[in-house]
Backbone:
């Protein structure tokens, strides 16, 4: 979840100095861009997946410290709450059989992690929100024992000045309050990174924004929170509300939330980092000793530590990232739209769809963002989160007359976006076998109108019809989900419902 920091208290001078350092970092970034100091094209991608820990009964287990100690791998690290882990896969070059290689690495890593979790009677569950999480699980005492999380929680709570209000109306209506940001830990996601040159950044970021709704429509996997059935992808409203530093009065004034889709198409990466400074007060005003402008003047590569830390406390669904590898600076687009799961095959299919689609959209002669109002892209994202694979979008019409029209998500993905994604993967040099296998998973979800969220909801309702209580139905759904996740067939092949009990004797 970002850079390591040490807990402490901040005074007024800390914040003033931090603001000054942020401005120096921004000036440094601008200078690096002008001097063309960034890395050449490398076609590099990376994947991070946030995971849940649950017991054999399907209930969350607050054991990430013990599990990580047993895993003993730098590929795994803590996340916000004690029932969370994150696995990081080393960067890969897009091309060839990259997706099959990624799938094999993930299978090996997650199988090992699951075995180690089993030593403390827990297991890995890869889903957007663990259906069995209750309000009593998401309290500050279950924060991971990491300074950054404690400090971040304290600063967001102080900035808000009152309890957080969760109010999400979907299939059912959830209204409750929280005294900390820990409910955000329920959101377990997949982050897809793509290294880009400064000249390509804006096109790729705009393409990722336009593609986000389709990603959610086919990949939604978070229909439950605190025992309520809400949106098909409930992570975005939960993340927004559980990290919202704005009391109602500031919301009424139109102050921007720290979790947001954005408000316009951009023409450079610099614009997004500049927005971060202009709109969002610092939460963690921790200053590094480095003087970035002096480093640049000496021909070095600055860490821009304050800018990087500040950027990590602003939760864009497509986030700009400044990084350094082998002493050379680079830019990445971090796509944070997707929930984890349901299976490794599904995760890789979602990744293939994203990387192919973004490549194709970014290279169109008439880019979609020149034909689609930004407000429509944001509304599409909201519709996808609410309705999943049954969503309807506004999208540019094909043909000579242009304009926009309404189309259902399945039709748009199947008839227009999948062919674009296929062409994009070809442009990356991905082998046809990888392309067809993983885009075929997306096509089958569209054909059957199934994703993780629809399977969870259908199985839950089947369990209710079978006479189980809500709590028992959610637990049974979670256990069945975990079982099928480990079998590994993609979610469109999962049978709905719970297995029939085996007769005795």
Residues:
């Amino acid at each position: 979840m970002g850079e390591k920091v040490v807990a402490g208290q901040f005074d007024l001078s800390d914040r003033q100095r931090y603001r000054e350092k942020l401005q120096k970092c921004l000036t440094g970034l601008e200078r690096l861009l002008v001097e063309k100091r960034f890395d050449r094209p490398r076609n590099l991608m990376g994947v991070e997946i946030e995971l849940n820990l649950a017991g054999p009964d399907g209930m969350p287990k607050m054991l990430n410290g013990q599990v990580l100690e047993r895993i003993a791998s730098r590929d795994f690290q803590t996340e916000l709450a004690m029932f969370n882990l994150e696995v990081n896969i080393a960067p890969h070059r897009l091309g060839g059989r990259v997706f099959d290689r990624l799938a094999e690495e993930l299978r090996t890593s997650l199988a090992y992690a699951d075995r180690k979790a089993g030593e403390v009677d827990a297991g890995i569950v890869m889903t957007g929100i663990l259906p069995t999480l209750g309000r009593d699980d998401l309290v500050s005492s279950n924060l991971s024992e990491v300074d950054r999380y404690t400090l971040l929680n304290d600063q967001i709570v102080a900035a808000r000045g009152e309890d957080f209000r969760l109010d999400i109306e979907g299939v059912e209506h959830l209204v409750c309050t929280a005294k900390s940001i820990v409910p955000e830990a329920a959101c377990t996601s997949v982050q897809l990174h793509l290294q880009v040159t400064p000249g390509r950044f804006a096109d790729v970021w705009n393409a990722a924004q336009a593609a986000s709704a389709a990603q959610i429509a086919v990949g939604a996997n978070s229909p439950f929170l605190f025992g309520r059935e809400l949106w098909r992808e409930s992570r975005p409203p939960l993340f927004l509300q559980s990290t919202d530093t704005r009391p109602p009065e500031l919301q009424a004034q139109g102050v921007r939330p720290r979790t947001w889709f954005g408000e316009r198409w951009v023409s450079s990466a610099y614009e997004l980092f500049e927005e971060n400074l202009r709109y969002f007060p610092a939460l963690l005003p921790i200053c590094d000793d480095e003087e970035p402008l002096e480093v640049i003047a000496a021909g070095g590569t600055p860490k821009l530590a304050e800018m990087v830390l500040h950027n990590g406390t602003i939760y864009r669904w497509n986030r700009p990232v400044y990084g350094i590898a082998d002493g050379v600076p680079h830019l990445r687009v971090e796509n944070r739209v997707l929930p984890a799961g349901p299976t490794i095959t599904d995760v890789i299919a979602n990744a293939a769809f994203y990387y192919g689609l973004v490549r194709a959209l970014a290279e169109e002669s008439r880019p979609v963002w020149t034909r689609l109002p930004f407000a429509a892209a944001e509304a599409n994202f909201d519709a996808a989160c609410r309705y999943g694979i049954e969503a309807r979008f506004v999208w540019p019409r094909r043909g000579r007359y242009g304009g926009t029209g309404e189309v259902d998500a399945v039709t748009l993905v199947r008839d227009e976006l999948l062919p674009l994604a296929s062409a994009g993967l070809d442009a990356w040099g991905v082998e046809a076998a990888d392309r067809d296998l993983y885009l075929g998973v997306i096509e089958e979800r569209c054909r059957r109108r199934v994703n993780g969220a629809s399977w969870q909801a259908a199985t839950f309702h089947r369990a209710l019809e079978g006479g189980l209580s809500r709590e028992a139905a959610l637990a049974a759904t979670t256990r069945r989900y975990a079982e099928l996740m480990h079998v590994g067939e993609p979610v469109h092949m999962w049978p709905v419902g719970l297995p029939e009990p085996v007769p005795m004797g």
Observations:
- The chain has a mean pLDDT of 95.
- The chain has one domain: 12-491.
- The CA atoms of residues 279 and 402 lie 35 Å apart.
